[in-house]
Amino acid sequence: MAWNFALYEVGAIVVGASSGLLAMRLGVGRPMTLAALVFAAGCVASTVAPDMATMLAGRVAQGLGGGGLVSLAFVGAARLFPPAMIPRIMAAMSILWGASAFVGPLIGGLFVAWGSWRAGFALFAAKAVLLALWLQFGPARHTPKGTGPVTQMRIPGLRLALLSLAIVAVSYAGITHTTLGLALALAVGLGSLAVFSLIDGRSGDGRLLPQSAFDPRAPIGAGLVMVLAVSMAAMGLTAFGPLLMAIIHQTPALTAGYVVALISIAWTVGAVLTSGMPERHDPAVIALGMTLVAVSLAGYVVAVPRGPVGLIALCAAGEGLGFGMAWTFILRRAGRLVRDDDAERLAAALPTVSQIGYALGAAVVGILANSAGFGPDPTPETAVRVAHWVFAGSLPFALLALVTMLRFVTVRA
Questions:
Q1: Cis peptide leading into 308, omega within 30 of 0?
Q2: Which helix (H) or strand (E) holds 53?
Q3: Closest among 263, 319, 274 to 295, alpha carbons compared
Q4: Residue 402 has pLDDT above 80, yes or no
């Protein structure tokens, strides 16, 4: 079951990292059409899958297509609209993201209840084909072409392989129960990620990420480290919240699921409420939003093990509200700070780095939970101990996000 999620993330991160380069060479429209078709093919593979291997292959394809669509949407927003419009565009995207986060699990649950999960994948395949047709023949066909000739487009195979290896190894570290397996997986994963960053930074015009992508001394590097760290810190409730609430507080599964969904709903509310803020307030809004996220994450340390569930929901709402406020303006401010030749790379890097953070964060909370004695049949006492470890162990990453946020918002644009 874990690999169903991990391999989707691998595909999404790999293509997301390439999206800026793709947009520079080919524009936005054609790569988005291809991404929609790849996603549809992955859904078809899962629909007809006779075994788990085929199902996982389908999930990789879904990640490739889904990651491309999300990253290219950010690139399109940065390329097609003036900076003053970016917060409203991001708010519109947040509304749709929140709606999908709310409705998507409901649709999946209905198909499972009807005894036909395969039909659920078939429905999403049909939706992706319709999206591809709309992208090919609708208004998207008029989007600007790439800024570089197609002949310059080379697939950076080694770097993408290193990135894939890093995410797979880190994901394995989060689910293995052996000390040796954990040590090897972390060494391979973090080492591959470091080598990828080193090679990519020296790749000139063919680089996937902006210059100084993970250097906290540089404004863009500080912004991306902030996004990476806060994404890592925020994985505790998503990964373990529903299960811990069920064991500790006997919370019904549907209620626990929608407590987690409050993050997406509040994210949308935060994005919409702040979308009209003038650009001069970007640093203050980003700082306020990130601080609210950090405070909410700290609140989980008390709320999840002790309750009540209403307090957990309040923290989830605060987390989502803070993310919605900050994320809406991160892209606009980063666009002011980045070099002109890195604009597309930056727009694609923001959601991709966030997904890398989610993958790393999932591994971290998995390691913390295993270290706290999480097993197949946890008792309430064990679950309380796990909750303390998981949420307290995530706080250093929240602190790192706040430190790098200060650099990002105080530098002169």
A1: yes
A2: helix 52-80
A3: 319
A4: yes
